[in-house]
Write the structure tokens for this entry.
Amino acid sequence: MLTFRVAEEKDLKAICDLCADAFMEYDFYRPFVDDPGKRRRFIYDLHVQCFKAEIKRRQAVVGEDEGEIITAFSIHDPGRKQAGFSEYLATGIGMVLHYGITPFKWFDMYDKCVAPAERFGRENPDVYYIEILAVRPDRQRHGIGTRDIQEYMVPYVRKKGGGTLSLITNSVGNTKFYGSNGFKCFDYMKVPAAKTEIGNWCLSMKVE
């Protein structure tokens, strides 16, 4: 049985292992780190940085089945600004350099990806933003992500009086998943990423 709870510090390693495995082939990371082992470590370290902050803010959630964490996500309340170039430059430049990534290219890609969501948030003050949604690979395609949205996120927003759920994805497959859960695309563009380009979809769903 899937049960949800607010994540705690003791969950950090399990969450980051889950995210590293879930996002190994995600287009946001793959162009920058070719070696699979090195890429997994990079994704893990990046999510340590992210989830430490989310756990402290009590905005990280885990889903457990028989005591094992099989899904993790983070949802931001309206008015919280996305981390931008300057914030990540201050906290993450050493890590990016450690993995042989050109900092400007990484942070420039990140800022371009989040810009439409930032603009959407300014224009729509009721936006709840899904920062991360990850499901353990062996439990994917079993409805877990849908349950994250329909059993936790939608009731969470509804309980607070309603609003708009929004997110960014760089995977065309993810757009189909979110579309099946009621999200619609409000912005799409190609973003430079290392020596290639990645798709960047911004989606939203009204919750009443």
